């Protein structure tokens, strides 16, 4: 996909399954492993099976515009990290990146599938989240080439 240049608004890691996301200025994205310091990288993610990370668990994204729209359209206000996604973007058409490769800072990522909100997310946040974030809940990605991702970094098509 051509024609966009977005950016990383914030980076969040959750150290253990069920824990609270914490903002960090940068993260090391490791191909085949995920984000260093995150629960899935450490092998303690809530949805891990048999102790191994699946490509769809390596990194997740959400548009800051989706967070703003949920507050505006559905009166569901969340902080940037409350979505439990790792990377918050601006100006990036995440729904259109399924099956496509894109650069995030120094890393290369492939969009795998949409990250629709689930009952677990709603239980960790508030009632109405599933409806407010339907079809705009983010993107699951696989890290193809390792690199550092920092707040403010560009997000561009590969």
Essential attributes:
11 strands; 3-stranded antiparallel β-sheet; alpha+beta; M1 Pyruvate Kinase, Domain 3; 158 residues; globular; 7-stranded mixed beta barrel
Describe the protein:
The protein is α+β, with helices and mostly antiparallel strands and 158 residues long. It has a single domain (6-157), classed as M1 Pyruvate Kinase, Domain 3 (Beta Barrel). 16% of the residues lie in helices and 34% in strands. The protein contains four helices and eleven strands, in the order E-E-E-E-H-E-H-E-E-E-H-H-E-E-E. It has helices spanning 39-42, 64-74, 119-124, 129-132, and strands at residues 6-13, 22-24, 26-30, 34-35, 59-63, 87-90, 101-104, 107-114, 139-145, 147-150, 154-157. The strands form two sheets. A seven-stranded mixed β-barrel has the order 1-6-5-9-8-7-11. It has a three-stranded antiparallel sheet with strand order 4-3-10, with no helix packed on it. Strand 3 (26-30) and strand 4 form a beta hairpin. The longest helix has 11 residues, at 64-74. The protein is globular, with a radius of gyration of 14 Å. The termini are close together. The model has no long low-confidence stretch (mean pLDDT 90).
Quick recap of the structure?
With 158 residues, this protein is of the alpha+beta class. The protein has helices spanning 39-42, 64-74, 119-124, 129-132, and strands at 6-13, 22-24, 26-30, 34-35, 59-63, 87-90, 101-104, 107-114, 139-145, 147-150, 154-157. It has one domain (6-157): PK beta-barrel domain-like (M1 Pyruvate Kinase, Domain 3, Beta Barrel).
């Amino acid at each position: 996909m051509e024609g966009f240049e977005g950016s990383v608004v914030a980076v969040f890691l959750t150290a253990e399954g069920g824990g609270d996301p914490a903002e960090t200025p940068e993260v090391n994205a490791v191909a085949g492993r995920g984000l260093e310091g995150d629960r899935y990288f450490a092998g303690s993610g809530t949805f891990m099976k048999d102790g191994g990370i699946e490509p769809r668990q390596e990194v997740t994204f959400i548009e800051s515009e989706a967070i703003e729209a949920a507050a505006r359209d559905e009166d569901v206000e969340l902080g940037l990290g409350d979505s439990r996604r790792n990377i918050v973007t601006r100006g990036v058409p995440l729904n259109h990146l399924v099956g496509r490769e894109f650069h995030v800072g120094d890393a290369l990522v492939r969009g795998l599938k949409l990250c629709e909100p689930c009952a677990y997310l709603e239980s960790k946040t508030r009632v109405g989240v599933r409806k407010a974030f339907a079809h705009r809940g983010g993107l699951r990605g696989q890290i193809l080439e390792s690199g550092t991702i920092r707040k403010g970094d560009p997000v561009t098509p590969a």
